[in-house]
Amino acid sequence: VQLVESGGGLVQPGGSLRLSCAASGFTFSRYSMRWYRQAPGKERELVAAIASAGGSTNYGDSVKGRFTISRDNAKNMVYLQMNSLKPEDTAVYYCTVPTLNSWGQGTQVTVSS
Q1: What would the DSSP string read from start to end of 19-54?
Q2: How far apart are CA 111 and CA 69, in angstroms?
């Protein structure tokens, strides 16, 4: 199993970023996917989850209404569209396959003016 995140960076408060996760080594369309994040000195936090077929999504309370998770099973990709970013969204964001206990290397998102 390999998960490779991309799309992180430095953005001003109120800005947007789109994270991508390229998955390989397993039958992607059969598995739900999640995005987690971890800020320095804080516990890892569930950001968003999406079912295998993409019809069901869930979000952490802190990102509801601002973030959108989606997937493209034809491309083995999962995405996280992040809008109205806040400084408290600063963290390393990880793509995961929860039932396979597999994690990517993470991508840093920094929200700062």
Answers
A1: EEEEEESS-GGGS-EEEEEE-TTS--EEEEEE-TTS
A2: 19
CA atoms of 99 and 81, how far apart (whole Å): 23
CA distance 3 to 43: 21
In this predicted model, what pLDDT tens digit does every residue of 53-65 receive, in sequence order? 988 999 999 999 9
**Per residue in 18-51, pLDDT tens?**
999 999 999 999 999 999 999 999 999 999 999 9
Q: Which of 49, 39, 20, 45 lies closest to 88, judged by CA?
A: 39
60/68 Cα distance (integer angstroms): 11
